[in-house]
Amino acid sequence: MSKRRIEIKSGSLAIIIMGLILFAHCGRAADSDIEDSSSQANLLFKSGFEGRVNIVSVGKRHKISGADESYVWPNDLPGAGNRNFFNYIVSGKKDYNQFINTDIVTVTGRYGQPTRALYQAILKNDKDTRALTRNQYNMYPSLTADTFKQMYVKYWLKFQPDLDEIMPKNSWRMMMEWFESGDDYRFNLQVIRTHQGGGLKWKLLGQILKPKREYDWLEINDQIQVPVGEWFLLEVFWKHSSEPDGQILVKINGKDLFNHIGRNKLNSRLSVLMPFKCYGRTDYSQWIDDFEIWDSIPQVSSR
Question: What does the DSSP assignment read for 145-175?
Answer without folding.
Answer: S-TTSEEEEEEEEEE-TTHHHH--SSEEEEE
